[in-house]
C-alpha cells in the first residue's frame, strides 16, 4: 500500500462548496477522493501539455532546419488567409 501523507489545502469558498456538493451527491466518498481525482486529471493534462510542447519544439526545429537548408517560400499572407478559410470551411462542413 502506498504511503499516505496528510496535506492541508485552502480553496476559494465556491471550490470548497463544489467539492462538498460532489461528496453529498454521492459522486465521491470523501473530499480526499475529489482532490485525488482532480490531481490525477491535472497530472494527465500536464503530461499531454508536455507532449504537445515537445511536438511544437520538434516542428520549430524542423522549420529552422528547412530555413538553414534553403527550403523556404516567399511569405504570402493572402495565401495563408485563404488556406485558413479553406480549413475552417472543411471543418465546419464535417460537423
TrEMBL record:
Question: Per UniProt, which keywords does this protein have?
Answer: Toxin-antitoxin system
Task: Give the protein's recorded name.
Answer: Type II toxin-antitoxin system ParD family antitoxin
Which Gene Ontology BP terms does the record give? regulation of DNA-templated transcription
The organism sits in which domain of life? Bacteria
Key word Hydrolase present: no
InterPro entries per record: CopG (IPR002145), ParD (IPR022789), ParD_sf (IPR038296), Ribbon_hlx_hlx (IPR010985)
Q: Which family does it belong to?
A: Belongs to the ParD antitoxin family.
Q: Which organism is it from?
A: Defluviicoccus vanus
One protein family per Pfam: RHH_1
The chain positions of domain Ribbon-helix-helix protein CopG read 5-44
Gene3D superfamilies on file: Antitoxin ParD1-like (6.10.10.120)
| Record lineage | Bacteria, Pseudomonadati, Pseudomonadota, Alphaproteobacteria, Rhodospirillales
